[in-house]
Amino acid sequence: MRLVAIGLLAGIFSALFGVGGGIIAVPLLVLFTRLPERVATTTSLGAIGITATAGVVVFALRGEVDVGYAALVGLPAAAGALVGTSLQQRIKTSTLTYGFAGLLTAVGSWMLWS
User: Fold this and answer.
1) What pLDDT does residue 59 have?
2) How far apart are CA 29 and CA 43, in angstroms?
3) What is the pLDDT of residue 29?
4) How many whole angstroms separate alpha carbon 109 and alpha carbon 114?
5) Is the distance from CB of 23 to CB of 80 less than 8 angstroms?
6) Residues in contact with 16: Cβ distance below 8 Å, sequence separation at least 6, in sequence order
7) Which of 4, 41, 87, 94 has the most other CB atoms within 10 Å of its CB?
8) How far is the C-alpha of 108 from the C-alpha of 101, rounded, in Å?
């Protein structure tokens, strides 16, 4: 049931703000299901494909998807995901935890003060 609730929240935030996988799902998976961080990250990546497909279908039906821009962002993002996956396997889990917390803090602070 917790996984379903986390998925629902991630989907809602993904559609509302364009975030959901890393910012919502990973912390909730770690906190409430006790998944190790690497497993939570990969679970979130798998779920994001399903979430993104559902979201893009709805927006496409409304004529709000620019396929060219999506490709310009998506293709490099796919390459970045391959690089990120390789890096993640080489970095200690504690370093990833602190790095992720720092990133969320910096982004949240920047959004509040900009």
Assistant:
1) 92
2) 9
3) 92
4) 8
5) no
6) none
7) 41
8) 11
The answer to whether the beta carbons of residues 86 and 77 sit under 8 Å apart is no
> Which token pair is 41?
């990250």
CA distance to 3, 7, 49, 106, 110, per residue, from 84 (Å): 25, 23, 17, 20, 23
Q: Which residue has the tokens 């917790």?
A: 2
Chunked mean pLDDT (size 10), the chain, 114 residues: 86 74 85 91 88 90 93 89 88 89 90 92
Please report where in the chains the tokens 């299901």 appear, as a residue: 33
Q: How far is CA 47 from the centre of its chain?
A: 9
d(CA 55, CA 70): 13
Dig out the tokens for 108 from the structure: 């949240």
Q: Which residues touch 26 (CB under 8 Å, ≥6 apart)?
A: 37, 40, 41, 44, 100
